[in-house]
Amino acid sequence: MKTIGLSAPDITPEEHLLVDEVLRSGHLSFGPMMETFEREFAARFGARHAVAMSSGTAALHVAMIAAGVHDNDLVITTPFSFIASANSILFERGIPHFVDIDPETLTIDPAATADAIESLAPSGRLRAILPVHVFGRMAEMEPILKAARRHGIAVIEDACEAIGSQSDGVFAGRCSDASAFGFYPNKQMTTGEGGVLMTDRDDYAALARSVRNQGRNGYEFDRLGFNYRMNSISAALGVAQLRRLDELLTKRDAVAARYDAILANVAGIRTLAAPRAGMRISRFVYVVRLDPGVDRDLVMSALAARGIESRVYFPAIHLQPFYRERFGFTEGMFPNTEAAAATLLALPFHGNLSTEEIEYVCDSLAAEIVRQAA
Ligand SMILES: Cc1ncc(COP(=O)(O)O)c(C=O)c1O
Which of 9, 122, 225, 287 is deepest in the core (most CB within 10 A)? Predict the structure, then answer.
């Protein structure tokens, strides 16, 4: 049986060429290719610095260090995300203060976030705000930035799923003190494993370059650091993919548009709402909402039986066993997140998905929903 995977990287001879160049050069870790990647990445988004990292998680961790997060500090973030965003706070022994999402956009509720900033800032323990641009939809940053600036609190964007997204002409990752990008193979562009910390702040960039390399400062080590370096083979992939980014995003847009058109006529599911005017989504995954009467587990097994991968995106972070045990979170605390986590389903999605494959996925989904309703 033919299987349709959830995601697939888009690799062409251009990637092969640059990876081969690195292999022949002998510079497999730090080297000119990583510098090229950093320079082109920063230039692409008009930033002063792009610091290449071994993963998006590493970039988030370093951003938390740069923001000054340490023991028992509070960081406002969303429970509807990939677990790495909240984990990055815990790496520095900070405490996530979750704010629920807007049920339509799935990003952190901006007014509730601004309120939380006002109420927590006087404690002196609020160190940073970490909004996540979920599935390539940017969080509404303006109210968050306004409140954070008023109290001198750092804002870090988790832009791991949002390379190339824009809000009113501003790119994801360009509204805050620093932003994290991730390039796992399911992302819009990939480096295999890899990430970038992007910032205009010279102090953050200098710290990030040191922390990713064991805390090195010249010939000495003057802080605790890690091995968060990006290797040059990944950087070569990154350079080729970044140069093809417009093409990669356009192909993903076309696949999403085809899904939207077909699924608009399928009962029992809703596609996600179009973004507001001025918002441009860089498509990370294709997610649908199942109506309350539809049994998602049965849908997933019916799709699997036809060779189609699907996935729950995202399970709520606060309800994961580790978070329940550590912080005492329980069901009902973040109802919009819990409703999204209970009803959303990610379908196969990448730029080279054929029309036949999309139709096969949609037909299979529709058939299972009809079967359940009968
Ligand atoms: C929202 C979000 N944050 C953080 C990450 C972590 O990135 P990485 O897997 O490169 O560590 C990812 C992706 O995996 C993500 O989707």
Answer: 287
Query: Domain locations in the chain?
Result: 13-243, 245-373
* Architecture of the domain defined by 13-243: 3-Layer(aba) Sandwich (3.40)
CA neighbor of 162 nearest in space, from 175, 148, 149, 143: 175
Cβ atoms within 10 Å, residue 304: 12
Look at ligand 1, atom 12, and give the residue with the nearest C-alpha.
160
| 351 C-beta closer than 6 A to ligand 1 | no
Give the CATH number of domain 245-373: 3.90.1150.10
Residues 234-288 have pLDDT tens digits of: 999 999 999 999 999 999 999 999 999 999 989 999 999 999 999 999 999 999 9
Residue 62: what are its φ and ψ, rounded to 5°? -65, -35
| Mutate-to-test residue for ligand 1 from 60, 82, 183, highest number of ligand atoms within 8 A of CB | 82
Assigned token pair, 159: 């832009």
Q: How many CB atoms lie within 10 A of CB 104?
A: 11
